[in-house]
Automatic annotation (TrEMBL):
SUPFAM superfamilies: Restriction endonuclease-like (SSF52980). This is Recombinase RecB. InterPro entries: Restrct_endonuc-II-like (IPR011335). The lineage of its organism: Archaea, Thermoproteota, Candidatus Korarchaeia, Candidatus Korarchaeales, Candidatus Korarchaeaceae. It comes from the Archaea.
Length: 202
């Protein structure tokens, strides 16, 4: 919610709105029945702004409309689209302004870093094997790499292969000397990363 709220404030400011308050309670007869995410002002108009993490449904449209009425303001919703045609039609019928956020509009730095890491890893897995895949890898080599890819450490990989650690070490040394494992992959973590890249396409 924090990233959506930050994105909503940014886009509202870019459209000439001034943010007056956040998390404003909605009261009836002295009882707090709800709240609105933002109060924003543009010109002489005050807007009760509802910010949705996901898509807007009919319930969300109704809530925004009622809250705005109780706050003597205009309803405005920031969301990532409509859940169905009925929600869109109701918002239009009630005169509710809806701003749709782009799915890639993220203002929270941690969320952005997480997404970039995931996308980079996916891109590397997709591209690197086609560039670096050693054509001389045989089925025995692939079996070794598959075991390494799914093992957390060297001993576990040897166990999966049903061989001693010494034998696996000698096989890996031989594969490296033949260019089947890159020279930069010097420790188990690096070899495992390479194995994951290769076997993801194999």
């Amino acid at each position: 919610m924090r990233s959506s709220l930050s994105a909503a404030k940014s886009i509202l400011r870019s459209r000439g709105y001034e943010i007056r308050a956040e998390l404003v309670p909605v009261r009836v007869g002295g009882y707090e029945i709800s709240d609105v995410d933002l109060l924003a002002e543009r010109g002489n108009d005050l807007y009760a702004v509802e910010v949705k993490n996901g898509k807007l449904d009919i319930g969300g449209v109704r809530q925004a409309y009622v809250n705005a009425l109780l706050l003597n303001s205009k309803p405005l919703i920031v969301c990532r689209g409509f859940s169905d045609a009925a929600a869109e039609a109701l918002a239009k019928e009630l005169g509710i302004e809806v701003i749709v956020l782009d799915d890639l509009m993220i203002s929270d730095p941690e969320e952005l870093r997480r997404i970039l890491r995931e996308e980079l890893r996916s891109a590397l897995i997709e591209v690197l094997p086609s560039i670096l895949y050693p054509s001389e890898l045989d089925e025995e080599d692939m079996e070794i790499l598959r075991a390494i890819a799914k093992s957390s450490d060297f001993l576990e990989a040897a166990s999966h292969l049903g061989m001693t650690p010494d034998k696996l070490g000698n096989l890996l040394k031989d594969m490296r000397s033949k260019g089947k494992i890159p020279k930069w992959a010097k420790d188990y973590v690096q070899v495992k990363g390479w194995a994951e890249l290769i076997t993801s396409r194999g």
